[in-house]
Amino acid sequence: MDEIVAEFIRRTILKIPVAEIGKILRIWNFLSESQLKTINLQQCKENVSQDVVELCKKKRASMKEAAILDIIYHQTCQIKKIWIVYKMTKAPGEEVDLSDMEEFKASFKKVLQRALKNVHISFRDSEDDAVWIRIAWGTPYMKPNQYKTTYVVYHSQTPFVFISHCQIKKYIPELWQALMTAGNYHKIRQMELRSLYLDSLKAIVFKQYNQDFQTYYLTPLEEENSEAEIVDPRIIHENMKEKERIQRVTRETFGDYVQPRIEFAQYKLETKFKTDCKNGILAEREEPFRCLVKFSSPHLLEALKSLAPAGIADAPLSPLLTCIPHKAMNYFTIREK
Amino acid sequence: MASSQKHVFSLTGVLYQLERLEARDQRSAKPQDEHQGLQDSETDLEAKIRKLRKLRDELRTKVKLHEASARIPITNLEPYEPLKNSEENLEMKLEKAKAFFQAFHLTGLSGKLTTKGVCICFSTAFEGNILDSYYVDLIIKKPLTIHRHSVPVFIPLEQIAAKYLETNFQHFVYSLSEHLNAYSGRKYQADQLQCGFSAFLARPLQRNSLCTLLSFTYTTDPSGKSFPFCARLVYQDLTTTLPTNVTITYQGTGATPASWEDQRAAHEPLFYKNALYKVFESFLRVREN
Predict the structure, then answer these.
(1) Which of A49, A308, B207, B287 is the most exposed place for a label (fewest CB within 10 A)?
(2) What is the ipTM of this complex?
């Protein structure tokens, strides 16, 4: 077995958290059950990976199998990779086609390999009927670099493709061409949507985040026990009413369920500066005042949802903030109307 | 195709030469009659394909209407007769309205008024099993637009809306309901096969998002004694829950045994006529006997 393959497998195992190693090796299904039993998972990771490499050497693992191990690792563990969403469109008049995934894979591989020499492509189907494509890029003079890979996730018969942020930008056009040819599409464009969490991106784009269509018929919430500090009953009533109103509006906007998880929203403003103060260097200027506003949070949409109930912002929130899942965007450019 | 314009500014040298060659090439590519001729025949063929597809769609709707007219029409009401007593009038109207709602409830369609329009709920079902519901939120204004929806992205909602939303709203609702019910039904069959009859499957079920292409390898005997059958079911029509094309092939080495051929000939029509899990239920019954 190649030393490069051995080193790659060793490094991959080192990346996997100890709790998941057994599970991932089982899914990989390259080493037999009896061989897996011989690995002592209690020892330090260095030794575990060494044991795995020894077993793989006996079985003569090739880069092909090692690539599959890499894909399984990415599919199982939450890897910190930024995913960008792309949307493909068909030529007008085209119908929904049958979309045989095997044909898609064969076609994709053929087109990409024809365009670029020395590119290593691996496929693995995931549980939710998507195909994960792992691409290691090389040059005409260099073998593919297995450590700088691009991942593409594609669900058949959908126009959306999820591509992990690629450090090697110059091959993106060839990648797009292969995707469009294999999927039978006409155009591809990058959407203004990206996040670390692939599942959330899928939820937003496939509208699987349980959009609550029943919000129109909900009765106002039952008021919880509020503190009896304020004695005047009229004041309590006003507070209650306002609280109820905020809850209702928040519910109508965001729904009852957990929001998809994204980490930031970015607004590029190209609007004129508006101020009450007539004097001042920025007032009355014709050119737009360009600035970038970025909201970031470990869970941005949940944070926005809690703004009004926490009293930090007025309800309803600005539609620029609440439209993020509906419009499937978290990068906005706002210009003068 | 996504392409980027490259502006190369070069004054002298190799790059300049290459630019000139490129420009010359582009100029010589323009007046080419036979290229034009090929393009013309291509557009002709495309137009022909579109015409044939339209004809196929029309024939399909005709077949469906023919089948539908055989059933008792629930929306056919007797012509309205003015009654002497206005109270009886009102009661009769109420009864008819109730009957309408009941009838529509059976179709799985319901709607609620919203502040700006109406939200239609499509409840899908297959062979007595209630499946998922999908919503379409419409804003009533000229032109009628879809504000939000929970229809999966691979259902051709935009095409159906483009065809019918403005011109024939009833048909829009009917067509979308057909697509959603058929998709739900196919998905249900695939899920049932995957979960309920996994013992029969030698290889896990492979499907595409719309469940219009299913491929799996099965045996009639889960203990593994009989030969495997490699089945590929194609559902060309997005509005049906039964396959339009069934291919069963032999996966093993060597020639196909005669008994396998007989079984294949018996299985193929079963897949055409019955829901997937019903076919496997019949295998189960045969085995138990």
Answers:
(1) B287
(2) 0.73
